[in-house]
Write a structure and sequence with these properties.
Elements lengths: L1 E4 L4 H10 L7 H22 L12 E6 L4 E6 L6 H7 L7 H8 L22 E9 L8 E5 L4 E6 L6 E8 L9 H12 L6 E10 L2 E10 L16 H11 L8 E7 L5 E7 L13 E5 L2 E4 L14 E5 L9 H6 L1 H24 L1 H6 L1 H14 L1 H7 L4 E3 L5 E3 H8 L10 E6 L6 H9 L4 E3 L5 H11 L3 E5 L5 H4 L12 H12 L8 E8 L8 E5 L1 H10 L6 H5 L2 E8 L3 H39 L6 H30 L2 H13 L5 H14 L1
Parallel strand pairs: 2-8, 12-14, 17-18, 17-19, 20-22
Antiparallel strand pairs: 1-6, 2-3, 3-7, 4-5, 4-7, 5-6, 8-9, 10-11, 11-14, 12-13, 15-16, 21-22
Helix pairs in contact: 2-5, 8-11, 10-11, 10-14, 16-20, 19-20, 21-22
Family: Belongs to the heat shock protein 90 family.
Organism: Duncaniella muris
Pfam family, one: HSP90
Length: 680
């Protein structure tokens, strides 16, 4: 019986710590099964080279739970080990048998999954003792038994084993009894081993009998040894892809389309990425794509392997160039991973362009489902953005689709402003903004529909990419001013008329939650409404973007800013002004004269003071005059406000504008309906 200490030294322990410091105990099963697959694949390779001339027999891996004995055993009929092999690969921890084997047979070797001799030690995370019982494939080899209780001490001697291969027996410790439950083991095997290239057998197939499930005599194979992504695209039908998708994501709708990845230089990568239906909600999950290494599940946290925007996709990526044991920092710094990420981005963009060119009608029919993915990609990945500029689509309010190039050609002649900018008019709510869309259409303008969750950010990005281009929301201005062709017309009002109409209309604006209104006057089309309400483009866009972008909460807290535009060319407004001037002249003229007189006195007083320090008497006089002006203005506004309250037409004109913008609600809406009925 050989006894000794496992060779753990400062020279070879650091690679172990760096690569195999597991945070999750359940990973041990993946490592042990991977090693068993590894040993099986090695023997197949040796047989193909003629270095093993015996019968291969059943080449499978078996996982057996013995709850009574408290053991979990992983068995293979692979290459096996001699005492010398165990001493080399197990007792010297930092040595990887897989690496040596691959170097020898690198051109033709079957896939070598694990790092044999390293991942094995993960067993001690759940076991109080581990035994290795092994018989090498070599002629005249003797079976050997190695055991260790997790300390550096081990013992090794002859074993009673007649079949070629290796059994790893784990004596599960008291803290990890969950791994003696068949259901728990089956769950882990499904998670980590469901696509391994060698059959993995765990327990028996069950059938329903006498009101319960009972074991049959048939072995239960838990994995698919030839998953869809390992096959050539030419061998697969559309239904094969859909079936595989349903296996990966039971209960979900079929994907829109998919991309089959297959590259062997300068790195090896296979896989299938599916485009699921993504509607209005931006649902970024980190577990949609599964990462495999030679068909062994590695992780479903693939940030770093794929660009962030591709976390909206689903599917499988398999690459032996990404090690089994990865950390986030490793993924972010590894050169091979960066190349893989870049390749996937390029492949996805290329496939989308291909789909667009092959069948544009089909591409357009799926646009609403993939729009958020493409916009997210363009906003977060510069290379994808450059590629997507060829196939990203814009949809107008009539449901027609355009590429960026097509749309510019469509609107350039009619929608270029006086400064040479092509103005893209857009709506976010075709129902609520109907009157504005209709007014823009009547001017000969086309209106885009930009109602997606990312469209606010997407618009800003397009403005930076497209030369001399502005986006303007359809309700941000009256139709005549959406695309200014010339300088604005004067309102036609003098200062006294403006000072009369401003409080007259402002006093009748109902209180709207989290909204502020600025009253202004413009000479517009006489056939247009007497009052129109628009929303400041810059502030509204900042608030929209604040809803989906951290660090912009300041804008989200600000009230909505609206412009209440009084159309001075409209006959109703002209009548309101004429009637108000006649009715209020006697009351307002003295107040206006008082305000003008006091303002003149303030101007004279300030001229006298100029650069000199004002006296206390001068300060007091200026304050008295200022208070007098403020008092007269307040009195004047109150007189105008009382007058306006008695004129239903004023309130009616304002409420009509609010109603067309969806801003008239509750009691104000009810009063509007009563007033409308009374005015009939």
């Amino acid at each position: 019986m050989q006894k000794g200490q496992i060779g753990v030294t400062t020279e070879n322990i650091f690679p172990v710590i760096k690569k195999f410091l597991y945070s999750d105990h359940e990973i041990f099963l993946r490592e042990l099964v991977s090693n068993a697959i590894d040993a099986t694949q090695k023997l197949k390779t040796l047989a193909s080279f003629g270095e093993f001339k015996g019968e291969l027999g059943e080449m499978d891996v078996r996982v057996k739970v013995d709850k009574e004995a408290g053991t979990l055993t992983v068995s293979d009929r692979g290459i096996g080990m001699t005492a010398e092999d165990i001493d080399k690969y197990i007792n010297q921890i930092a040595f990887s048998g897989a690496e040596e084997f691959v170097n020898k047979y690198k051109d033709t070797a079957n896939a070598i999954i694990g790092h044999f001799g390293l991942g094995f030690y993960s067993a001690f995370m759940v076991a109080k003792k581990v035994e290795i019982r092994s018989l090498s494939y070599k002629e005249d080899a003797e079976a050997v038994c190695w055991e260790c209780d997790g300390s550096p001490e081990y013992s090794m001697g002859p074993a009673d084993k007649a079949e070629r291969g290796t059994d790893i027996v784990l004596y599960i410790d008291d803290d990890n009894k969950e791994f003696l439950e068949q259901a728990r083991i089956d769950t882990l095997l499904k998670k980590y081993c469901r696509f391994l290239p060698v059959p993995v057998i765990s327990g028996k197939v069950q059938e329903w009998k006498d009101g319960k499930y009972v074991d049959t005599d048939k072995d239960k194979v838990v994995n698919d040894t030839e998953p869809t992504w390992t096959k050539k695209p030419s061998e697969l039908t559309d239904e094969d892809y859909r079936k595989f998708y349903r296996e990966l994501y039971p209960g979900q709708e079929d994907p829109l389309f998919w991309i089959h990845l297959n590259v062997d230089y300068p790195f090896t990568l296979t896989g299938i990425l599916f485009f699921p239906k993504i509607k209005s909600n931006l649902d970024i999950r980190k577990d949609r794509i599964q990462l495999y290494c030679n068909q062994v599940f590695v992780t479903d946290s693939v940030e770093g392997v794929v660009p962030e925007f591709m976390t909206l996709l689903q599917g499988v990526i398999d690459s032996p160039d990404i090690p089994l044991n990865v950390s986030r920092s490793y993924l972010q710094s590894d050169t091979a991973v960066k190349k893989i990420s870049g390749y996937i981005t390029k492949k996805v963009a290329s496939r989308l362009e291909e789909l667009f060119k092959e069948n544009r009608a089909d591409f357009e029919s799926k646009w609403d489902d993939i729009k958020i993915f493409i916009e997210y990609g363009m906003l977060t990945d510069e290379k994808f953005c450059d590629a997507a500029m060829k196939f990203v689509l814009l949809r107008d309010t009539e449901g027609k689709y355009f590429t960026l190039e097509e749309y510019r050609a469509l609107v350039e002649s009619a929608q270029t402003d006086k400064d040479g900018n092509v103005v893209y008019i857009y709506a976010t709510d075709p129902t609520g903004q109907f009157s504005f869309i209709n007014a823009a259409n009547e001017k000969g303008y086309n209106v885009l529909l930009m109602d997606g969750q990312l469209d606010g950010h997407f618009i800003s990005m397009l403005e930076s990419k497209l030369e001399k281009t502005r986006f303007v929301r359809v309700d941000s201005e009256v139709a005549e001013k959406l695309i200014p062709k010339e300088d604005s017309k004067d309102s036609g009002l003098n200062a006294d008329q403006i000072s009369l109409l401003t409080p007259l209309f402002r006093s009748q604006i109902p209180a709207v939650d989290k909204a502020e209104f600025l009253v202004s006057f413009e000479s517009l089309d006489p056939a247009a409404s007497p009052i129109l309400i628009t929303q400041n483009e810059y502030m509204r866009r900042m608030k929209d973007m604040a809803a989906t972008q951290a660090g912009m909460s300041f804008y989200a807290e600000l009230p909505d800013s609206y412009n209440l535009i009084v159309n001075t060319s409209q006959p109703v407004v002209a009548r309101i002004l004429d009637e108000a001037e006649k009715a209020l002249a006697d009351k307002l003229t003295p107040l206006s004269a008082s305000i003008d007189s006091d303002n003149e006195k303030i101007t004279t007083l300030r001229a006298e003071i100029k650069d000199n320090k004002p006296t206390d008497e001068q300060k007091a006089e200026e304050q008295r005059l200022t208070d007098s002006v403020e008092k007269a203005r307040k009195e004047k506004d109150e007189i105008i406000g009382r007058y306006a309250a008695e004129k239903p037409v004023v309130k009616q004109a304002i409420d009509l504008a609010l109603l067309s913008n969806g801003l008239l609600r509750g009691r104000d809406l009810s009063e509007f309906i009563k007033r409308s009925t009374a005015m009939l």
